[in-house]
Amino acid sequence: MSPAGPDPRPTSSLFWRLLPTYLAVIAVGAVAAVVVGQALAPYFLKHSMDSMMGPVGTSGMGGGMAGSMGGMTVDLDAAYRRALTQSLAWASVVATLVAAAVALVVTSRIVAPLRAMTRASERIADGRYGDRLDARAPGEVGELAGAFNRMADTLQRSEERRVELLADVAHEFRTPLSNLRGYVEGLEDGVFEDRATVYQAFDRQLDRLGHLVDDLSLLSRVETGQIALDLRSIDTADLVEAALAPFRPDAERRGVHLSAVTPDPAPWVRADRERTLQVLTNLLGNALRFTPDGGRVRVTVSPTHHDAVRVSVADDGPGIAPEDLPNVFKRFYRGDKARSPHAGGSGIGLTIARQLVERQGGEIGVTSQPGEGATFAFTLPAAAPHDPPLG
Questions:
Q1: What is the model's pTM?
Q2: DSSP characters for 346-390?
Q3: Which of 225, 243, 251, 321 has the fewest CB atoms within 10 Å around its CB?
Q4: What span, in angstroms and rounded, lies between the C-alpha atoms of 328 and 282?
Q5: Superfamily for domain range 232-383
Q6: Secondary structure (DSSP) of 164-219
Q7: pLDDT tens for residues 239-296?
C-alpha cells in the first residue's frame, strides 16, 4: 500500500464522525422532551385540578376541606412530576438505544462504499486498473461509484494505449536502427566498396528516424491539446492547389493523373490553413504512394447539407480490406499495406490527420473495396469569405 494512504486513526474515519452526530441529535431531543415536560406538566395539572375543584368550591365547602384538597393537590403535583420524569427518562434511554442501532446500520451503509472506494483507489494507484465498484447503491453513493468506475475505465484505456504506444515506438525504431547497425558493421568489415552508396543509405535511415520523431512529437501535442489552432475563413480552391503543387513533379514523372474538382465559386471553410494543408498532404502522399504508375488521384471538394464542406482524396491503389477499414486511423496499424513502414511512411500520418480534423470540428473517414482503390474524405465547418477569425 502506498505510504501516503488515508489516516488509519478511528477518530479520522467518516464513520466515527457521522455516528456521534446522530447520537447528539437524539440526546438533544431527549433533553428537550424532559425539559418541556417538566415545564408544562404543572400548568396542565393545575388546569385540570381547577376544573375539577371549581364546582365543589362554589357549593360552600368548608375551610378544612379546602385546605385538605390544597395539600392533596401539592402531593399529586409532586407525584406527577416524578412519574413524568421517570417515564421520560426510560423513554429517552430506549429511544437512544433504538436510534443508536439504526444510526449504526445507516452509517455503516454510507461508509462501506466509501471505504471500498478508498481501497480500490489505492489498488489503482498501485497500477491495478481492473478494480470496479458496485454502482447499484441508491442516490449519490451509487452515482459516485458510477463516476469512479468511468474514471477507472478511462485510466485503464489510457494505460493500455500507453503500453501499446511504447511497444509500437520501440518496433518502429528497431528497424532503422538495425539497418544502421548493419551498415556500420559492413563498413568496419570492409564489405562495402562504394562508400557513397552507404552514406546515402545512412541518410535515408536517419531521415526516417527524424520523420518518426517529428510525427510522434506532433501527435503527442495534438492529442494533449498543446497545438493552438488559428481558425479563419479559407478558400478551398487555394488550399487544394497549395496541397497539390509539391506532388505534381513526381506524379508527372510516374504518369499519374493528378486532378482537382471544385465548385465555382469554391466553398470556404473555417479552419487552420497550415494544419488543414498538413491533413491534405498526408492524404495525398498516402494516395500517391499506392497508386500505380499511370494511375489516377483526384481531389474533390463539395458542400454538404449540414453547413460543412467535404474534401475527398481518391486513388487507384490496391484498396483496403473491409476488416481493416475501422483500424486505418490507428497508430502504427499494420493490417493493410497502406500502413507498411517499407512504403516510406511513419505509420502515424493518418492518425495525425484524424486528430487535426477532429480538433477543427470536422470528421474524417475512408471507403474502399479491395482492388478498386480507396477514398479518404474529411469535412470542415463551412464559412463565409469574410468571417472574422476565431480565438
A1: 0.56
A2: -S-HHHHHHHHHHHTT--EEEEE-TTS-EEEEEEEEEE-TTPPPP
A3: 225
A4: 13
A5: Histidine kinase-like ATPase, C-terminal domain (3.30.565.10)
A6: HHHHHHHHHHHHHHHHHHHHHHHHHHT--S-HHHHHHHHHHHHHHHHHHHHHHHHH
A7: 999 999 999 999 999 999 999 999 988 899 999 999 999 899 989 988 998 899 999 9
Select the CATH number that applies to the domain covering 161-223 from these four: 3.90.190.20, 1.10.287.130, 3.20.20.450, 2.60.40.10: 1.10.287.130
User: What is the rounded distance in angstroms from the CA atom of residue 76 to the CA atom of residue 188?
Assistant: 120
User: What does the radius of gyration of the chain's CA atoms come to, in whole angstroms?
Assistant: 41
What is the identity of the amino acid at 230?
D
Helix (H, G, I), strand (E, B), or coil: what is residue 44? helix
Q: Is the pLDDT of residue 339 over 50?
A: no
Residue with cell 557513397: 196
CA–CA distance, 102 with 2 (Å, rounded to integer): 35
3-state SS class at 391? coil
Q: Give every CB contact of residue 171 below 8 A, 6+ residues apart in sequence.
A: 332
Q: Collapsing DSSP states into helix, strand and coil, what is residue 34?
A: helix
Domains 161-223 and 232-383 share a fold: no
pLDDT in tens, 340-358: 444 445 567 888 889 899 9
For the segment 154-173, the average pLDDT, to the nearest whole number, is: 76
Contact 286, 349 (CB under 8 A): yes
Task: Note the maximum CA span of the chain.
Answer: 148
Q: Residue 41's closest CA among 91, 85, 92, 72?
A: 85
Q: Where are the domains of the chain?
A: 10-128, 161-223, 232-383
pLDDT tens, position by position, 90-143: 767 777 777 777 777 777 777 777 788 888 888 888 878 787 777 776 667 777
Is the separation of the CB atoms in 136 and 149 below 8 Å?
no
CB 380 within 8 A of CB 362: yes
For residue 297 the three cell numbers come to 488521384
Please calculate the CA angle 294-300-304 and round it to the nearest 5 degrees.
155
Query: Distance (Å, rounded) from C-alpha 213 to C-alpha 215?
Result: 6
